[in-house]
């Protein structure tokens, strides 16, 4: 019997990282399981992220520049 005494904290992944890992897994010569292992995530987690990308639930955040009108007074 194994007794687990500590609690491991869950990692939080940024969307940019998830997208990068999914793109790596979908490369023509990539092996899905090896990509998951390389990033220390389960194949199931990678599969979930892949589904989110395909459904459009996980997309890169695009920040549009915001312009503020300025008036110079002499």
UniProtKB/TrEMBL annotation:
Superkingdom, natural source: Bacteria
Biological process annotations from GO: DNA transposition
InterPro entries: Transposase_8, Trp_repressor/repl_initiator
GO MF annotation terms: sequence-specific DNA binding; transposase activity
Protein name: Transposase
Species this chain originates from: Acidiphilium rubrum
